[in-house]
Specification:
By secondary structure, the chain is an alpha/beta fold. It contains eleven helices and nine strands. Strands 3-2-1-4-5 form a five-stranded parallel beta sheet, with helices on both faces. The protein has a four-stranded mixed beta sheet with strand order 7-6-9-8, with helices on one face. Helix 7 (about 160-170) packs across helix 10. The longest helix is centred in the last third of the chain and has 25 residues, at about 210-235. The protein is globular, with a radius of gyration of 19 Å. The chain starts with 9 loop residues before the first helix and ends with a strand.
Length: about 300
């Protein structure tokens, strides 16, 4: 249980200042006329204040960066590219900004969940390994020392991937009937289900109908919930971030990694496009190819530059 700290203490005030650094990047549901203040996120302020009370670095966990979409109309390949580099740099910079107001600083644990549902999204396990290994290399090359990667290899070692998935599912996944009932009753879960179904339809090259995607969407949510519970078990005090939109005050804090027109767009479902004004956005590869020219980096496709 997080330590309850009175609202007038120094740890809570510092926790509020730290959360204020995250609020401009909050990825939320709906459109509020004004951004919500830090006081609307008591769960996150309390978690951050616990670290401050101990004088320890604030730890964030972010289930994200699973693998590239298998759809070549959306991405450049199966390895990280400029979209991932920009997103990782953003997260590391956020930690350095926290360090300016709280010297112990912060770190983000990237909980790479590709193996958890790789079979359901039709991405080969060796592509998922290559993606996660390259993330680590990119972090080292760019000096992003406030970041680390956590995946199933840290928990279950070199067991076969199907065995790992089965163990995680059997121990942590919610029952299918209960999940179906939740989709019917809860708008937030319904939005997640629809978003995942859309991705599964878009990402399946041999798609022939929606029934398979509809069924697999439940499986992805089951595995995602299981992965979230596993993360909470191994990092029980961490502040939980999410790449999905989250309501104000929810236990998870939705965070936007890069600009995109769609709140569900991520670097692993798109490519980075460098606009003429110097800003970056995420778009499908097919869109980027119409708007700009492809740029290579380190001998492989990296991003597009707007014409």
């Amino acid at each position: 249980m997080p330590l309850t700290i009175p609202s007038d203490t120094l740890p809570t005030r510092i926790g509020t200042e730290i959360l204020n650094l995250l609020l401009p990047h909050h990825r939320t549901t709906g459109r509020a006329p004004v951004p919500a203040p830090a006081e609307a996120f008591p769960h996150q302020v309390r978690r951050i204040a616990d670290f401050v009370h101990e004088g320890a670095p604030v730890v964030f966990t972010l289930p994200a960066f699973p693998c590239k979409s298998p759809n070549p109309a959306k991405v450049l390949g199966h390895l990280p590219d400029q979209g991932e580099r920009l997103s990782l740099t953003f997260l590391n910079t956020l930690c350095t900004e926290i360090e300016r107001i709280y010297p112990p600083g912060a770190r983000v644990i990237i909980c790479s969940d590709g193996h958890v549902f790789g079979d359901l999204v039709h991405v080969p396990d060796h592509h998922i390994d290559a993606y996660a290994d390259d993330l680590r290399m990119q972090m080292a090359r760019l000096g992003l020392d406030r970041l680390s990667v956590f995946d199933l290899r840290d928990i279950l070692g070199d067991l076969p991937h199907d065995t790992k998935r089965a163990r995680v599912h059997d121990r942590y996944a919610p029952a299918l009937d209960a999940l179906r009932a939740e989709v019917c009753a809860d708008d937030q879960t319904l939005a997640l289900y629809r978003g995942i179904t859309r991705f599964l339809v878009e990402d399946t090259a041999d798609w022939t109908g929606t029934r398979s995607a509809l069924q697999r969407a439940y499986g992805v949510i089951q595995r995602s919930r299981a992965w979230g519970d596993l993360i909470a078990e191994h990092h029980p005090h961490a502040v939980r971030l999410s790449i999905h939109p989250q309501p104000v005050g929810a236990p998870k804090f939705g965070i936007r990694l890069l600009d995109a027109s769609d709140a569900w767009t991520t670097p692993w479902h798109s490519v980075a496009l460098h606009r003429a004004d110097g800003t970056w956005t995420l778009v499908p590869r097919a869109t980027a190819a119409r708007l700009g020219r492809l740029v290579q980096r380190d001998g492989r496709p990296s991003h597009f530059v707007h014409n």
